[in-house]
Specification:
The complex is a heterodimer of chains A (422) and B (308). By secondary structure, chain A is an alpha/beta fold. Chain A is built from 15 helices and 15 strands. The longest helix of chain A is centred in the first third of the chain and has 20 residues. Chain B is built from eleven helices and two strands, in the order H-H-H-H-E-E-H-H-H-H-H-H-H. Classes of the chains: A alpha/beta (422), B mainly alpha (308). At the A-B interface, helix 4, strand 7, helix 9, helix 10 and helix 11 of A face helix 1, helix 5, helix 9, helix 10 and helix 11 of B.
Chain lengths: 422, 308
């Protein structure tokens, strides 16, 4: 796929339309009274720690895998971050300075991530970094960010159990994603028994642990819990086991290439997910993954996360349009891609609230930052550096999109160290 | 775990589980046959085997798109044409690789390991640049994706039957080529004694190239078939490589029968254990058993009888 962005065209008509639709990122700032000029914020005052900030621009880092196994997933995040940066620049930048980025390739290799993070922080002096995808890569760069006092925006939904002063987590932590989904399936579908299934590493195991505790708290039954090695491609045996234990819900957290094998074999084994007997609920299949699985192989499944491309609100309509304009019409946007898009915007808001690029001041300013222009809707940064966000349930359609069937009424509080769930 | 079930239900589950084992067996045979030819007959440790399989999968992907766009009326049978194309495309690439790379390394078999590993990385990056880093979705004709309800409880996946039939046909074809054709005789002669084979007038270079090409071609067909059950992405070949070597080495490198016997024993062991234990545990136990047996019998299950 091409990595060259198409030129953005910010025609008057487009901005007027978005303005009429109300509150999109673009319109809000174009017409907002607060237009910051670099001259009002002298470099010496807004940058006391020697970051790469000049009178005209500021440098940030983008650190994702564009080669290796994880390139499959991380490409969307890179695209979203570049889009956000471009939009911010078109509106006048951050504190009147244009954002320049230095992109490094983590190459799906965790030590490489750490090395590149160090390069970005020590050599390039970037003011912040948008990056990482897997928990393993985040854990690898964490000591680097803490040692050199960098600031990372991390986009992926993940297992929680972490709260670093040097990271803002723009994806959901496990309890936000899991509990609302299980409540929904028990209340609206009357589910009584669950079969937990996952790939064998930390995220599915931690998530299933939380799911199991919650299911048992509700007085319901877990009839099976299974883990398969990453890259496992033969699921016929477990499908038979699922038949044998007749759960109401298959709760699936299978990832990567295994995902494709699992759903294709489930369909081939004659389990029609549209009949919802059993119903399939997943937290690991976004629109991105469906492209590999094939919409016809997963139609009828439910997914629980905070964002779906089909979300119907003006922010999202505009975001999807801009994303496709920049990267091509055949693009799909998954949960993590949207969360990655929030990174630069949250950083901009924090910097402008702090009136400084200094990492310590940005950190101090971060909790309480609100974003009304997020494609997922209103979000707010919590004291614990995670986001308050709504959780939604989507119903997979044959065209590879989800139809949103449920949305929590309130923002769900992030709780990375859930008591009673560990 | 079985207390709550009637005999009928249990029978059905065991029948389906037996069938799952047979499907796994067919998958293993398909994966391993190409490598058994290349590694077993030529002694080339082909680490790029998985990437040749994925090339077959991508050929299937392209074919399916072409049929959907230009010949929608024939879409339901495109898969057969895709498999034939996959064979020839991967065989051609295999022969090119043999000519440009492998033939310089016959005297240094361990170096083929590094060279083909490098080749696998190059191929992965090429796939990524051409087809994108994301997995592509290969649309399978509807009739191949359903299941056949034999009784109320027993349902047999059609793609499983397809893979089984394919595995049997290719095994038979390879057997006839190896043991009933003059080419096969030449291949075996070159394997046993390259110098002597050349001395009696066999064109060893041509034989090598053809053997490598056919081995890769079989891998391509396997890859094409696996679009029904697995993913198609730049690095998906890596998912198969370990199991493939496991099957070939366990079976005894130079024996086709050994490859089939080993595919059968490993698949049955794994499928039965997966049913009673968790997936990861089943894998661990399978690998432990294989390692144990290979310690006692380093030459594998079946080995050529050689005068020492």
């Amino acid at each position: 796929m091409s990595d060259t962005p198409k030129k953005p065209s910010l025609s008057m008509e487009a901005s007027r339309r978005s303005f009429l639709m109300g509150g999109t990122a673009l319109a809000a700032t174009l017409f907002a009274p607060k237009f910051l000029r670099a001259a009002d914020y002298p470099t010496a005052a807004v940058n006391t720690t020697g970051l790469a900030v000049t009178d005209t621009d500021v440098t940030v880092g983008i650190l994702h895998s564009v080669t290796g196994t994880m390139a499959i997933s991380e490409t969307g995040s890179v695209q979203a971050e570049k889009l956000a940066i471009e939009q911010i620049n078109a509106q006048g930048g951050v504190l009147g300075r244009q954002i320049k980025f230095i992109q490094e390739d983590g190459a799906s290799d965790w030590p490489t991530f750490a090395e590149k993070a160090k390069k970005l922080l020590v050599n390039d002096k970037v003011a912040s970094v948008m990056g990482c995808w897997t928990s393993a890569s985040r854990k690898a760069v964490l000591p680097v960010f803490e040692q050199y006092n960098g600031f990372l925006y991390y986009p992926t939904f993940y297992e929680g159990l972490e709260e670093s002063p040097n990271v803002i987590y723009t994806g959901q932590e496990a309890t936000q994603q899991i509990i609302a989904g299980i409540d929904w399936v028990t209340q609206t579908k009357g589910a009584k028994s669950f079969y937990l299934l996952g790939s064998d590493y930390i995220w599915p195991r931690t998530s299933n642990k939380i799911a199991r505790k919650h299911i048992e708290k509700l007085g319901l039954k877990v009839v099976g819990e299974e883990y398969y090695p990453l890259g496992h491609t033969q699921f016929n045996s477990v499908i038979n086991k699922i038949r044998l234990s007749k759960p109401d819900v298959i709760y699936a957290i299978v990832v990567g290439g295994s995902n494709v094998a699992f759903y294709k074999q489930l369909k081939a084994a004659g389990i029609d997910m549209t009949k919802e007997k059993p119903l399939l609920l997943t937290i690991s299949v976004t629109e991105d993954e469906i492209r590999g699985i094939g919409g016809e192989n997963i139609v009828g499944a439910y997914a629980c996360m905070k964002y779906f491309q089909s979300l119907d609100n003006p922010n999202n309509v505009e975001f999807v349009k801009e994303f496709k304009k920049m990267w091509g019409d055949d693009m799909v946007i998954g949960d993590v891609t949207q969360a990655a898009y929030l990174g630069p915007w949250l950083w901009k808001a924090a910097v402008e609230k702090a009136g400084s690029f200094d990492v310590d001041k940005v950190r101090e300013a971060s909790p309480g930052i609100e974003l009304t222009t997020a494609p997922e809707g209103y979000v707010k940064v919590h004291e614990n550096h995670h986001l308050w966000s709504k959780t939604r349930v989507g119903h997979a359609k044959a065209d590879g999109q989800y139809e949103v069937v449920f949305e929590t009424a309130e923002l769900v509080e992030p709780d990375p160290f859930p008591e009673g769930y560990q | 775990m079985f207390a709550d079930y009637t005999m009928g239900e249990l029978g059905a589950i065991f029948a389906m589980q037996g069938f799952a084992g047979l499907i796994l067996f067919s998958v293993f045979v398909l994966m391993a046959l190409g490598l058994a030819i290349i590694f077993g007959q030529m002694g080339v440790i082909n680490m790029a085997h998985g990437e040749f399989m994925i090339l077959g999968a991508y050929v299937t992907y392209i074919t399916s798109n072409l049929f959907a766009d230009y010949l929608p009326s024939l879409f339901s049978i495109y898969f057969f044409i895709a498999m034939i194309l996959a064979f020839f495309v991967t065989a051609a690439l295999g022969m090119l690789v043999e000519w440009s790379l492998i033939r310089h390394l016959y005297k240094r078999p361990l170096d083929t390991l590094l060279a083909t590993w490098g080749l696998s990385l190059i191929l992965q990056q090429i796939y990524r640049s051409v087809f994108g880093a994301r997995e592509v979705g290969v649309t399978i004709p509807d009739w191949m994706m359903g299941s056949l309800p034999l009784t109320d409880l027993i349902e047999v996946p059609i793609n499983g039957i397809f893979v089984m039939v394919l595995a049997i046909s290719i095994s038979v074809a390879v057997y006839f080529m190896m043991y009933r054709s003059s080419w096969g005789k030449q291949v075996r002669a070159v394997t046993q004694n390259r110098v002597m084979a050349g001395a009696v007038g066999i064109n060893t270079e041509r034989t090598d190239r053809l053997t490598f090409g056919i081995g890769c071609g079989v891998a391509g067909v396997a890859g094409s078939a696996f679009t029904m059950i697995g993913s198609t992405g730049p690095t998906a070949g890596q998912l198969y490589i370990v199991d493939t070597f496991l099957v070939v080495v366990f079976g005894g490198a130079a024996s086709l029968l050994g490859t089939i016997a080993s595919a059968f024993s490993i698949s049955q062991a794994q499928s039965i254990m997966e049913f009673f234990l968790s997936g990861s545990m089943a894998k661990v136990l399978t690998l432990l058993t294989v390692v144990g047996i290979l310690m006692l019998r380093p030459q594998g299950l079946f080995a050529l009888k050689l005068r020492k």
